[in-house]
Amino acid sequence: MNPSIFATTQVTLGEFDFRSLGDGRSAAVRYANNSNYRNDSLIRKEMCVSSSMIQEIKRIIKESEIMKEDDSKWPQKNKDGRQELEIRLGNEHISFETAKIGSLVDVTESADPEGLRVFYYLVQDLKAFIFSLISLHFKVIPDSMNFEDTALTMIPTPRRSSLSKTVTSQWYEAVQLRIQK
């Protein structure tokens, strides 16, 4: 495999960051979210993924054709917040910023509904992909049997277990079906 194929891959989407490491044969995925639920603090997760995940992220981005879009006619950030997406693929670099999109109604009522629709669906696909990766790498278990206490602990899931392989292959097939639709 040619390491230059993977070099300088970076996708930053609000609370997610996906960056290739070293020679580009692996990547770090970082998730950070400020939770205000019951005065919780910052939730952080980090994991490494293989070159096949880098290839899948690149494929999703390239097939979306987001690199051809321009955010100049998209709604500007407002009191509800903003959404940002930054992509670096090799020598290409593009950055988008728009108001938070609540639903497809916000997309269709914009000055550039086609471009914003590409952005909206790409963001949804990337979030689903990364949340699925996080759920495959971490398992949530209650700290105690007292269900009134909702504190949760994240523990690493063994990467080579047969259950993990089965879940991964089922998830990958589901993602392939969803992307092809």
Tally of distinct domains: 1
Give the strand content: 25-35%
Terminal residue distance: 30 Å
Strand tally is 8
**What is the averaged pLDDT score?**
74
What is the helix tally?
4
CATH architecture: 2-Layer Sandwich
Shape: globular
Helix content: 25-40%
Structure characterization notes:
This protein is of the alpha+beta class. It is 35% helix and 30% strand. The protein is built from 4 helices and 8 strands. The strands form 2 sheets. It has a 6-stranded antiparallel β-sheet with strand order 4-3-2-1-5-6. A two-stranded antiparallel ribbon has the order 7-8. Strand 3 and strand 4 form a beta hairpin. Helix 1 runs antiparallel to helix 3 and helix 3 packs antiparallel against helix 4. The radius of gyration is 18 Å and the shape is globular. Belongs to the mago nashi family. It comes from Aspergillus oryzae.
Task: Describe the SSE topology.
Elements: E1 9-13, E2 16-21, E3 26-34, E4 42-50, H1 51-64, E5 82-89, E6 92-99, H2 104-108, H3 113-137, E7 138-142, E8 152-156, H4 162-180
Antiparallel strand pairs: 1-2, 1-5, 2-3, 3-4, 5-6, 7-8
Helix pairs in contact: 1-3, 3-4
Family: Belongs to the mago nashi family.
Organism: Aspergillus oryzae
InterPro entries: Mago_nashi, Mago_nashi_sf
Structure characteristics:
4 helices, disordered C terminus, 8 strands, Mago nashi protein, Mago_nashi, Mago_nashi_sf, globular, alpha+beta, 181 residues, nucleus, two-stranded antiparallel ribbon
